[in-house]
Write a structure and sequence with these properties.
two-stranded antiparallel ribbon, globular, mainly alpha
Length: 112
C-alpha cells in the first residue's frame, strides 16, 4: 500500500455549512441544517491521530455525527454492519454529488 498525502480541503469542509445531512440515520437524524458539519468516515486513510481524507466524508447533522463517531449508539433497527456501510456509502456519494453541484469539486468530462 502506498502512503498517500492526506487530502484536506478547507473548501470541502466549509461547503457543509447550511447543507442538509446526507447520512440521514433513521431514528437519529435531526433533519435541519444548523448543525451540519463535514464528518469523516472510517477508511484506510485514517489511523491513530489522523482523520480520514476529506473525500471520505459526508455532510452530517450533529445527531448523525454523534452516532458516526460513537458518542451515541446506532438506533437498534439500524445497528448492523451492512446497514452502517450502506448509510456511509450513500452519504459519501450524496456529498460528492452536492460538492459537484456547488462547484467545489469537479470531475473531468462532467458538465453541469
Amino acid at each position: 500500500m502506498l502512503k498517500a498525502t492526506r487530502i484536506e480541503s478547507k473548501h470541502i469542509r466549509n461547503a457543509a455549512k447550511g447543507e442538509y445531512c446526507t447520512l440521514q440515520i433513521v431514528g437519529a437524524c435531526q433533519g435541519g441544517t444548523d448543525t451540519t458539519v463535514l464528518a469523516h468516515l472510517p477508511d484506510e486513510s485514517h489511523g491513530m491521530g489522523r482523520k480520514a481524507d476529506d473525500l471520505s466524508a459526508a455532510f452530517c447533522c450533529g445527531a448523525c455525527h454523534d452516532v458516526l463517531d460513537g458518542r451515541q449508539r446506532w438506533p437498534e433497527s439500524e445497528d448492523r454492519p451492512d446497514v452502517r456501510q450502506f448509510y456511509m456509502r450513500r452519504a459519501q456519494t450524496r456529498t460528492w454529488r452536492r460538492l459537484v453541484d456547488l462547484g467545489v469539486i469537479s470531475i473531468k468530462g462532467v458538465r453541469l
